[in-house]
């Protein structure tokens, strides 16, 4: 049975020596080892209409409105701070007020469990273009797997330029400053994440983080919204109470080598994974869009990459993680025969793309470059038709698993992480890189 303490015994903690001065905290709020990120949402640039075949689903501008977003923590703590991010913004964002509260279901909060959030002692803050801001610590008893709601009041016209597109969690929007209201009157709703990128807790002893970097299958597309049933959520439940955070750095439309509906995994690896305090391992579940997007509605002019190109990209990711003392677990690419065939997206699958997937998966399993392997392909494929998802695990679009499929994928990690310890008994990362 998978036990997180095994990770704590066998994975070498990443030592972060940098201390953060007050001015540096605004530019790099994630580097303070006194804190552990307990929840995160990777940021993407908001695309212009027509730039992608899928709409953003968010208002272009917010003005004089309160935005309420719900998160589920991985690790709990006695103090909390939030990180607001505007990495792709061309304009500063003014936040007039912020309130943290326990989530009470829907768009409501527990009025008795609510606290104002300040920034360097002020109720308001200017979030600079291209930067992040960490709040002051909030004394807030947050349990393991507890749900919190952050309400932000945006008093000025605010162009939405950075976001996380597929939140799988309802966000709520009302007119005026309603940050302290437990129930929002007649709110609008959407499912993206805006401005909120991390929630951190005071780091417990032997703190550690496992980060899953991937695409929509890591982000959880196809799972039931508002229920935390993505495969990293299932892993977080198993890690609960052991001081190890499981963080989801998935981006729908993400690719390993090239930008998609966000920057490539190689481009965002430092920001989303290696900059996280106490990161010990990364699970790399990425590559399906590198193979399937070319020649499809998403990237009609791109050529399908050779397996060797993807393998070189994985090697680069592994080398960079190992250089920072972080272990890397590779996840095989799941089947996608018939993917998106009942949607406006065309050309997503083909026999040639399937051949590349099989070659890449063979290398992930047998190439020896990763510190461990999670066989997501074996977990969800149809034995009678292995190029396709098992119908019981298919969300319906033949690309994304549903809730049951994500549970089956998470179950594969039970075998992968103990194996990681056997691969490198000394505890030093990189025991198999370089092959």
TrEMBL record:
Coiled coil: none annotated. InterPro entries: GDSL_Rv0518-like (IPR053140), SGNH_hydro (IPR013830), SGNH_hydro_sf (IPR036514). Residues 212-408 form the SGNH hydrolase-type esterase domain. Pfam families: Lipase_GDSL_2. One of its GO terms (molecular function) is hydrolase activity, acting on ester bonds. The keyword Signal applies. Keywords: Hydrolase, Signal. It comes from the Bacteria. SUPFAM superfamilies: SGNH hydrolase (SSF52266). Residues 1-27 form the signal peptide. The keyword Signal applies. Its EC number is 3.1.-.-. PANTHER family: GDSL-LIKE LIPASE/ACYLHYDROLASE, PUTATIVE (AFU_ORTHOLOGUE AFUA_2G00820)-RELATED (PTHR43784), GDSL-LIKE LIPASE_ACYLHYDROLASE, PUTATIVE (AFU_ORTHOLOGUE AFUA_2G00820)-RELATED (PTHR43784:SF2). This is Lysophospholipase L1 or related esterase.
């Amino acid at each position: 049975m998978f036990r997180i303490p095994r990770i704590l015994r066998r994975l070498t903690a990443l030592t972060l020596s940098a201390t953060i001065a007050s001015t540096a905290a605004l530019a790099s709020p994630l580097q303070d080892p006194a804190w552990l990120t307990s929840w995160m949402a990777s940021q993407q640039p908001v695309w212009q209409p027509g730039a992608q075949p899928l709409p953003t689903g968010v208002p272009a501008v917010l003005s004089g409105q309160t935005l309420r977003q719900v998160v589920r923590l991985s690790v709990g703590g006695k103090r909390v701070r939030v990180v607001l991010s505007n990495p792709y913004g061309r304009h500063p964002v003014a936040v007039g007020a912020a309130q943290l509260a326990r989530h009470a279901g829907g768009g409501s909060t527990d009025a008795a469990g609510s606290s104002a959030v300040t920034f360097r002692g002020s109720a308001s803050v200017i979030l600079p273009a291209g930067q992040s801001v960490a709040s002051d610590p909030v004394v807030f008893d947050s349990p393991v797997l507890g749900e919190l709601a952050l309400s932000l009041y945006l008093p000025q016209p605010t162009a939405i330029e950075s976001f996380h597109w597929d939140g799988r969690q309802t966000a709520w929007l009302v007119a005026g400053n309603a940050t302290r209201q437990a129930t929002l009157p007649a709110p609008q709703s959407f499912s993206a994440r805006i401005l909120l990128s991390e929630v951190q807790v005071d780091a417990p002893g032997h703190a550690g983080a496992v980060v899953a970097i991937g695409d929509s299958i890591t982000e959880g597309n196809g799972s039931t919204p508002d229920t935390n049933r993505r495969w990293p959520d299932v892993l977080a439940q198993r890690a609960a109470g052991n001081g190890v955070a499981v963080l989801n750095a998935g981006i729908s439309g993400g690719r390993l080598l090239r930008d998609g509906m966000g920057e490539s995994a190689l481009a965002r690896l430092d920001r989303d994974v290696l900059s996280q305090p106490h990161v010990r391992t990364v699970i790399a579940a990425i590559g399906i869009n590198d193979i399937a997007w070319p020649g499809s509605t998403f990237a009609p002019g791109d050529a399908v990459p050779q397996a060797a190109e993807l393998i070189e990209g994985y090697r680069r990711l592994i080398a960079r993680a190992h250089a920072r003392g972080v272990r890397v677990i590779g996840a095989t690419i799941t089947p996608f025969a018939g993917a998106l065939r009942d949607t406006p997206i065309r050309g997503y699958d083909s026999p040639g793309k399937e051949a590349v997937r099989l070659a890449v998966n063979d290398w992930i399993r047998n190439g020896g470059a990763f510190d461990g392997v999670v066989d997501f392909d074996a977990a969800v494929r149809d034995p009678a038709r292995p190029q396709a998802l098992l119908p019981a695990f298919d969300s319906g679009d033949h690309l994304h698993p549903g809730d049951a499929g994500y549970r089956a994928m998470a179950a594969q990690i039970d075998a992968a992480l103990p194996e990681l310890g056997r691969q490198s008994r000394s505890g030093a990362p990189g025991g198999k890189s370089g092959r």
